[in-house]
Design a protein that fits this description.
This protein has two domains: about 5-120; about 130-280, Alpha-Beta Complex (Aminoglycoside 3'-phosphotransferase, Chain: A, domain 2), CATH 3.90.1200.10. The chain is built from nine helices and ten strands. The protein has helices at about 5-15, 65-85, 125-130, 140-155, 165-180, 190-205, 205-215, 255-265, 270-280; strands at about 35, 40-45, 50-55, 90-100, 100-105, 115-120, 220, 230-235, 235-240, 250-255. Helix 4 (about 140-155) packs across helix 9 (about 270-280). The protein is globular and about 65 Å long. It starts with 5 loop residues before the first helix and ends with a helix. The model has no long low-confidence stretch (mean pLDDT about 95).
């Protein structure tokens, strides 16, 4: 049964904000804790650590509506991010109130909410922020590419067409959502024209997609590989925050997974790095 316990979620967040020594540095004050809200999670940023809790929400693409589902997704998030970001992700912990106040425990506990503990990196070390003032060095670009290549080589291949996302359905879902903003942002006729063009292009290239699948290049990827989800840590560029809540978002051609990053680099004026990364990826 769904347990949309927003009050309990808020209670836990308030307690963790006011007890940063439990999960961050003993010298951290509550006023130094930053809180970030997303549609599915609350993230607390301390001086040395970051803490993520799933919200009790239910969307078409994301189901965190029960304690068991939130715990399972946190464990899966830890697992899927280990190949590229093992140095950032410390583990999933149970949260419990004790006589000494709120505490974290490394073992699963019945009826206890869970959280994901990570190392904190400086705000300026998120790659989309870093490139505002800095060029990405060639060696860093090469290291990032090699990390992505290693991740894709080790990723599980999807060899049955039935197990891969139906991209006609994906297009339909996306454009159904766009209709909610018509005509405020887009005219209905423009939306339908674009929908038709995408479905036509997909139909014309279906044989290529099938060939790539048969060759083993459709795999479980990162799913959200752009600059906001890459950080600089201990001298390396580390992708993190891979999607865990919807397999259709991560199953795809490995080149598609990489292209998100290439487009983001190019859109932010980092064409040289985008070209270098692509050339090294395909060689």
């Amino acid at each position: 049964m769904p347990d949309f316990s927003f009050a309990k979620h808020d209670q836990l967040i308030d307690a963790l904000v006011n007890s940063p020594s439990v999960w961050d540095s003993h010298s951290t004050n509550a006023s130094e804790v930053k809180k970030i809200e997303t549609h599915g999670s609350t993230v607390l940023l301390g001086i040395r650590k970051a803490l993520k809790l799933k919200k009790p929400v239910l969307f078409d693409h994301m189901d965190y509506s029960t304690l068991a589902k939130r715990t399972a997704c946190l464990n899966k998030e830890f697992q899927v991010n280990q190949p590229m970001a093992a140095d950032l992700y410390e583990g999933v912990f149970s949260i419990s109130f004790t006589a000494d106040g709120i505490q974290l425990f490394p073992q699963p506990m019945k009826d206890a909410e869970s959280c994901l503990l990570m190392k904190r990196f400086a705000d300026g070390n998120r790659l989309d922020i870093y490139i505002r003032e800095n060029e990405i060095p060639d060696l860093l670009s090469e290291q990032l590419c090699d990390t992505i290549v290693s991740f894709h080589k080790a990723a599980t291949a999807v060899l049955e067409q039935e197990s891969a996302p139906n991209f006609h359905s994906v297009i339909s879902r996306n454009f159904d959502q766009l209709h909610e903003y018509s005509p405020t942002l887009f005219s209905k006729s423009l939306i339908e024209e674009f929908r038709t063009l995408l479905n036509t292009e997909l139909s014309q290239t279906a044989h290529i997609l099938l060939e790539r699948l048969n060759k083993g290049w459709v795999r479980y990827g990162h799913g959200d590989l752009h600059l906001q989800n890459i950080c600089l840590h201990n001298g390396s560029a580390i992708p993190f925050d891979a999607i865990e809540y919807e397999d259709d978002f991560v199953i795809g051609d490995v080149v598609y997974d990489t292209s998100f990053l290439l487009m983001d680099l190019a859109a932010r004026g980092q064409t040289k790095t985008s070209n270098q990364l692509f050339n090294r990826y395909v060689r």
